[in-house]
Specification:
single chain; mainly alpha
């Protein structure tokens, strides 16, 4: 009886203890859930994917430094290249070749003015977006109780917008001004990479266009001597050799330019799909996206005109009459049809019209993947203004 009673007592105490432990665990779990719900989102702790895509400033300066090194390397070969280019150009500066309606200098200058002007507007909008965002953040957060944020100042603006620089360097006004000058210069170099490709493409395509125009004029003649076609084919071969030299000298810059444009178009598209705080941010990102896309398309289309002009006279050559037909016409047709006359990115690809659509499809594919992986970060919304 005593053993049975003691067993009942032990059973009662054990049951109470188990219930107490269960209640304690439930309350602890509830407290953890409440803490997790009450804890604000840690926006600084981004996932690995977002960290890989996010550092635009770092990637921007890496591309700029790489382009500087490539231009310095190209400058060593420039005197030899430009002397050879000049000798070839002299052939097309006199009859029977004609000056086209829009001269080469007009085409190059117009392209340079448009690209440089748009890049200045882009950089001005970037600075305006950064300054207005900083001023409004400082004005709103300084009104909060126990706020440690002071007034608006140039020093704080520089530290907030260029934090990576002052993680290594001590802050001073001289360094701050120098950093702003470097940022502006880097923006010019970043745009000049594409402008340079556009200018050399216009120079090469202009000469191929002169050859095509000369061939088009021959279709009105009744008798064309074989020596004329020999001279045209020799000039065509000279231009192909010049193009090969130019491509060997600058194909690395073309490859870097395409990689740069692909990355920043994807990043700017991500920024457009994300929620921004101020209207000026939307203005800057939309303008930057349109300018970057237009600049990239201009690079591809201008470079593609080399390939277009090199083949534009094929239809005329194929309709040469039997009286004028000769082996040189056949050779010229075969060379125009089979040879890929275009600038390239280290021979990995050639800048033709087809490549523009291929790159557009690649951008769409990458952007869909980026948006899918970035979905959790976009759901978090904007970071608290005064966090």
């Amino acid at each position: 009886m005593k053993g049975q009673t003691s067993w009942k007592l032990r059973h009662i105490f054990r049951s109470k203890r188990v219930n107490q432990l269960d209640d304690h665990e439930n309350s602890s779990a509830k407290e953890i859930d409440d803490d997790q719900r009450a804890k604000p989102t840690d926006y600084a702790q981004l996932d690995i994917f977002h960290r890989a895509v996010y550092p635009r400033g770092l990637v921007f300066y890496v591309f700029v430094q790489c382009s500087c090194m490539l231009f310095i390397d190209a400058a060593r070969h420039w005197p030899t290249l430009i002397r050879y280019w000049t000798r070839v150009e002299l052939i097309f500066s006199k009859p029977p070749y004609e000056v086209l309606k829009r001269s080469l200098s007009q085409r190059v200058r117009l392209s340079a003015l448009i690209i440089i002007g748009c890049s200045i507007v882009d950089h001005a909008l970037y600075l305006s977006s950064a300054i207005i965002s900083y001023r409004r953040n400082a004005e709103l957060c300084s009104k909060l109780p126990n706020s440690t944020i002071g007034g608006v100042s140039f020093d704080k603006f520089i530290v907030i917008n260029y934090p990576y620089a002052f993680e290594v360097l001590p802050y001073s006004r001289i360094i701050a001004v120098y950093i702003m000058l470097v940022a502006g210069t880097s923006t010019f170099i970043w745009n000049y990479m594409d402008l340079f490709i556009i200018m050399i493409s216009k120079g090469l395509s202009y000469r191929f266009e002169q050859i095509s125009n000369r061939i088009h004029l021959l279709k009105q003649a009744d008798q064309v001597p074989e020596s004329t076609f020999i001279k045209i084919r020799e000039d065509y071969v000279r231009m192909c050799q010049l193009l090969e030299r130019v491509d060997n000298a600058f194909s690395s810059i073309i490859l870097l330019s395409c990689a740069n444009n692909l990355y920043f178009i994807c990043v700017q598209l991500m920024n457009i799909f994300n929620k921004l705080r101020w209207p000026i941010n939307y203005v800057y990102h939309w303008y930057s996206m349109l300018f970057l896309g237009s600049r990239t398309a201009c690079v591809f289309l201008t470079a593609a005109t080399i390939n277009d002009e090199s083949k534009s006279a094929l239809a005329v050559l194929r309709r040469v009459s039997g009286n004028n037909w000769c082996i040189e016409v056949e050779r010229l047709i075969f060379q125009m049809f089979t040879q890929t006359v275009a600038l390239s990115g280290k021979k990995f690809y050639f800048l033709t019209r087809r490549l523009l659509f291929g790159m557009a499809g690649t951008i769409v594919t990458y952007e869909l993947v980026l948006l899918q992986f970035d979905e959790p970060n976009r759901r978090k919304g904007l970071q608290p203004l005064c966090a």
